[in-house]
Design brief:
- With 247 residues, the protein is mainly α.
- It contains 13 helices and two strands; from the N terminus they run ααββααααααααααα.
- The protein has helices at 3-10, 14-23, 41-56, 60-68, 73-108, 120-128, 135-143, 151-164, 167-177, 189-199, 202-205, 218-224, 228-245; strands at 30-31, 37-38.
- The termini are far apart.
- The mean pLDDT is 87.
- Residues 79-106 form a coiled coil.
Length: 247
Amino acid sequence: MRTGELAALVGVTPRAVRHYHHLGLLPEPARRANGYRVYGMRHAVILCRIRRLTELGLGLDEVRDVLADDAGRELVEVLGELDADLARQEAEIRERRRRLAGLLAQAEEGRLPAEGPVSAALGELLSELPETRSPSAAKDRAYLTLLDNGPAGEEIFAALRPLASDSGVLALYERLDALADASTDDPRIEPLARELVAAVPDEVLASIPADGPTVPGAAEALLADFAPAQAEVLRQVMAALLERGKR
């Protein structure tokens, strides 16, 4: 058989045949005087087995190991690993579908925020926050999504929910907005920082590491997102919260 005939018999492409030769999976056949390859049924059997193994999901390196093992032990081991991997994939798909079902439920109830997809806990908090045009409040709302990473985030969101209906919090955001064009020695900075620190619930403070943010550069990136006077307020707030957490 010629290359095209072998490929047609097994149900693969001639390119696949040449690729398997290149990788050493399929033995090279004898060649005629004109240079054409001539395949026998042994090649067809090996090629068919390669096709079946790859259809199961085995990688070509795994196929090579299976073909080299005459006793068949390698095949049993590889198939066991493949089955375990598929089981993990099934579990991951079930978890993703569970999360999608929760998000769809939020959407049906009108509770899916623009920042979505987010957890149910954060979705509930965001849905309770009052509408505002405050740029600082919008940034804070977006930053909450960075905390949406498990039980710790859920505790923080639960602690923040009483603040959602506190009109005084919006007033603090508006005062921070008012510092957009101020200098870093503005007299409004220190009083605002003290009031922001006082507004942070103890439950939220408990989630802050005693030695500060665990990701290097995170605090600097946060401050860089604000105007100089606003950044000075937040710098004082972070320093005061770290000090308060040590008590």
